[in-house]
Specification:
With 318 residues, this protein is α+β, with helices and mostly antiparallel strands. The chain is built from nine helices and 13 strands. The chain has four domains: 73 residues, DnaJ domain (Helix Hairpins, Orthogonal Bundle); 41 residues, no CATH class; 68 residues, HSP40/DNAj peptide-binding domain (Sandwich); 84 residues, HSP40/DNAj peptide-binding domain (Sandwich). Helix content is 25%, strand content 20%.
């Protein structure tokens, strides 16, 4: 018997989100194709646990799965999935002579040969009917070829790579490696579809879906399509003005600090941010932070004798 989604991850049906995530990370690490090149079955298991995590980590899909509305691949279950107990289909009675209104939404291509079932319910002649009968066509109809299951992946992308839209090399569940092109408008949570990169099926391969997770940076942060950086400058550079090096995702550039720049001032570097869907790049916002040394005898002596500066808190009413 095939394992259900919870069994694939080795967790109880009432497991918390944290328990599901922990179980998936552990299994994904064990089964990743890069670590199991001599174990071909590992790729299939990796795809199965990833599919299970993708469905169970989505609250809506998990609820639908628990209610029996969708199967382990996320597909809606057949209308007859609960069996024929009492011959009831949504309240319509399917007893002898009762009519078949309950079956009106049935798609012939969705089921295997049902003629034997109807013979058991209504008798062989009634099922076939004179000259073939209403259900004679079921005998020769076969299930339409099914595409293979879709596969889901999660990919962590370094912050600077996300800004530059640098292609990411990834290994798929079948062990094949591809260079994934990152699209304009990339954000944390962007989902990229790879057609035909899912599991094999009689009707062709399913698709793969890659969810992007942009990793945080140690000094850059994102604001829409802009990037913010707090840049420390010396008191002298702020008072007298200076040209200083500033890091950007594209490499260091020179920035002019105007004379008399206050701490908290924001300068702008055009076109150094993320790329929007229309191809235009955002900016890098450079917030100035004046660095005052803990102990500098000359600076302390100057401050003690300096009477300028006024009251910078006057706009606050104090």
């Amino acid at each position: 018997m095939a394992l259900d989604l919870y069994q694939r991850l080795g967790v109880a049906r009432g497991a918390t989100e944290a328990e599901i995530k922990k179980a998936y990370r552990s299994l994904a690490k064990q089964l990743h194709p890069d670590r199991n090149k001599d174990k071909p079955d590992a790729a299939n298991r990796f795809a199965e646990v990833t599919q299970a995590y993708d469905l169970l980590s989505d609250k809506d899909k998990r609820a639908r799965y628990d209610r029996g509305e969708i199967d382990e691949e996320g597909n809606p279950k057949m209308p007859f999935g609960s069996g024929f107990g009492g011959y009831s289909t949504g309240g319509a009675q399917a007893g002898p002579g009762a009519g078949f209104e309950g079956f009106q939404n049935f798609q012939a291509g969705d089921a295997a040969d049902l003629s034997d079932l109807f013979e058991g319910l209504f008798g062989g002649n009634a099922a076939r009917g004179a000259g073939g009968g209403a259900f004679s066509g079921f005998r020769n109809r076969q299930r339409a070829p099914q595409k293979g299951a879709d596969v889901s992946y999660r990919l962590k992308v370094p912050f600077v790579d996300a800004v530059a839209l640098k292609p990411q090399r990834i290994t798929l569940g079948d062990g094949k490696t591809i260079d994934l092109k990152l699209p304009n408008g990339l954000e944390d949570g962007t989902r990229i579809r790879l057609a035909g990169k899912g599991q094999e099926g009689s009707g062709g391969r399913g698709d793969a879906f890659v969810t992007i997770e942009v990793e945080p940076h140690r000094f850059f942060s994102r604001e829409g399509n802009n990037i913010r950086l707090t840049l420390p400058v010396t008191l002298k550079e702020a008072v007298l003005g200076a040209k200083v090096k500033v890091p950007t995702s594209d490499g260091a550039v020179m920035l002019t600090i105007p004379k008399g720049t206050s701490s908290g001032s924001v300068l702008r570097l055009k076109g150094k941010g993320f790329t929007a869907k229309n191809g235009a790049r955002g900016d890098q916002l450079v917030a100035i932070g004046i660095d005052v040394p803990d102990s500098d005898p000359e600076l302390q002596k100057f401050a003690e004798n300096w009477t300028g500066g006024g009251n910078p808190r006057a706009p606050l009413g104090v």
